[in-house]
Design a protein that fits this description.
By secondary structure, the chain is of the alpha/beta class. It has two domains: 7-132 and 286-314, 3-Layer(aba) Sandwich (Rossmann fold); 133-285, Aspartate/ornithine carbamoyltransferase (Rossmann fold, 3-Layer(aba) Sandwich). The protein contains eleven helices and nine strands. The strands form two sheets. A five-stranded parallel beta sheet has the order 7-6-5-8-9. Strands 2-1-3-4 form a four-stranded parallel beta sheet, sandwiched between helices. Helix 2 links the parallel strand 1 (43-48) and strand 2. Bound molecules: N-carbamoyl-L-aspartate.
């Protein structure tokens, strides 16, 4: 695998391979010194043109735990502010000798463009509304770990909220359906793309109708920074209709799990404190983020000798 830009590009076998590799990284992270030499001599640069807490820190931690060198690009203090183009920025960083770009950008397709300008690997850490493949890997891994199953046949994933602006939803729809899950989207019509007939999903506008059939409840944030106009009449009404409150938690089957990619807007999509819910996987999603991104960087960068490198991970 040279790049990780979308779940479709990864495909079913690539998805399963990375999920299996993540198990090794979880083991590494459980050690007193969670560090292996597998990517010694490699350099990973994070190129984030949008804000991030979890994704950026977990990629940087992942690279360090595999002994790669890291470079951090900060837009606000870079020559982008002097008018330098994205292409010149990428070519400049490439000239310094980097092996992978981890890219987040507000425009769809930027990771594909960057891979035309550099020989380094490109990892999509979120492009516009389009794709966020490592978040989908995190979420599939977390469900596998929590439910103790490899595939999701017979399970229903219900994704609630701002589907329209959500790259997490798009990547998760692909990844969970590749593993056999049924996917239901719940949102007001204004927060759905105009046509989802070609997506492998069912659609509902009433959260209360689907809760009883849900195994994995996935709440999304209203991504107001990606909205051009008001898509909901007001936040209180949205919270009443689509927010998760105690009454709605009570309608879920007792085995159902709760997920959220973060950042969470308490009092909007989340009216309960998820830390009081025994089946919340939100903390596991964050901690698995490091292991999943270690697996991705290892898969991309360990190269030909990845089998011998895997023994370094195992030792
Ligand atoms: C998501 C994103 O950036 O797309 N966050 C994340 O990566 N954990 C979701 C969001 O911003 O709401």
């Amino acid at each position: 695998m040279k790049h990780l830009r979308s779940i479709e590009e990864l495909g079913h076998d690539g998805l399963v391979r990375l999920l299996e590799l993540t198990n090794h990284m979880v083991e590494v992270n459980s050690r007193p010194v969670p560090k292996v030499p597998a990517l010694r001599g490699r350099t990973v640069v994070s190129l984030f043109f949008e804000d991030s807490t979890r994704t950026r820190l977990s990629f940087e931690t992942a690279a360090k735990r595999l002994s790669a060198d890291t470079m951090t690009f900060s837009v606000s203090t870079s020559s982008v502010n002097k008018g330098e183009s994205l292409r010149d920025t990428v070519e400049t960083i490439t000239d310094m000798g980097v092996d992978a770009f981890v890219v987040r950008h507000k425009s769809t397709g930027i990771p594909w463009q960057i891979s035309d300008w550099t020989d380094a690997s490109v990892v999509n850490a979120g492009d516009g509304w389009h794709q966020h493949p490592t978040q989908a890997l995190v979420d599939c891994f977390t469900v596998r770990q929590a439910l103790g199953c490899e595939r999701f046949d017979g399970l229903t994933l219900t994704i609630v909220g701002d589907i329209k602006h959500s790259r997490v939803a798009r990547s998760n729809i692909s990844a969970f359906s590749m593993l056999g899950a049924k996917v239901i989207l719940v949102a007001p019509p204004t927060l759905l793309p105009p046509d989802v007939s070609h997506w492998p999903v069912e659609v509902s506008h009433r959260l209360d109708d689907v809760l009883a059939h849900t195994d994995i409840l996935y709440m999304l944030r209203l991504q107001s920074e990606r909205m051009s106009q008001g898509h909901v009449p007001n936040l209180r009404e949205y919270a009443e209709t689509f927010g998760l409150d105690a009454a709605r938690v009570g309608k879920l089957p007792s085995r159902a799990v709760l997920m959220h990619p973060g950042p969470m807007n308490r009092g909007v999509e989340m009216m309960v404190d998820p830390s009081t819910l025994p089946n919340s996987l939100i903390h596991q999603q964050v901690s698995n983020g490091v292991s999943v991104r270690m697996a991705v960087l290892f898969d991309l960068l360990a190269g030909e000798s990845s089998t011998s490198h895997l023994s370094q991970v195992a030792s």
